[in-house]
Amino acid sequence: MKALFMRAFLTRALSLAAAVMLLASPALAQIPKLNLLQDNKPSKTQEEKDAESAQDKAYKDSLKKIPDAKAPADPWGAVRSTDAPAAKAPAKSASSSKPKAKTGTSAE
Questions:
Q1: Residues near 87 by Cβ (< 8 Å), separated by ≥ 6?
Q2: 102 pLDDT band (50/70/90 cuts)?
Q3: Whole-prediction pTM value?
Q4: Which of 39-43, 44-48, 74-78 has maximum average pLDDT?
């Protein structure tokens, strides 16, 4: 009886430990990997530096050869008003343009 109890306890403890490890494993993926060793890459030779500068120069020269872009097409340009202040001000209706007559008191 005692062996059965110990075996059940051990099984539950191991399953609990496994569950905790499974839950904690995604957190390990968020830890950044640190490289404490120096890079063992050899530095670039003078020939490699010259080739890289030649490639950069060729790239910049090719960018200068690209023609300027055309102005963007504005299909509604003919519809819009060219008068900026009039375009910003709301249009007044006929009823709001008439002066309102005061009623009740007379100003003489």
A1: 80, 81
A2: low
A3: 0.31
A4: 44-48
In the three-class reduction of DSSP (H, G, I as helix; E, B as strand; rest coil), residue 101 is classed as coil
How far, in Å, CA of 104 to CA of 98, rounded?
19
Residue type, position 95, single letter: S
Which residues lie below 8 Å from residue 44, measured CB to CB, with a gap of 6+?
52
Residue closest to 18 by CA, chosen among 29, 7, 6, 10 = 10
Q: Where does the pLDDT of residue 22 fall: very low under 50, low under 70, confident under 90, or very high at 90 and above?
A: confident
DSSP alpha helix (H) spans, 1-108: 2-28, 46-65, 84-88, 94-97
Are the C-beta atoms of residues 13 and 5 closer than 8 Å to each other?
A: no
Using the Cα atoms of residue 86, residue 89, residue 95 and residue 96 in order, give the sign of their dihedral.
Answer: negative
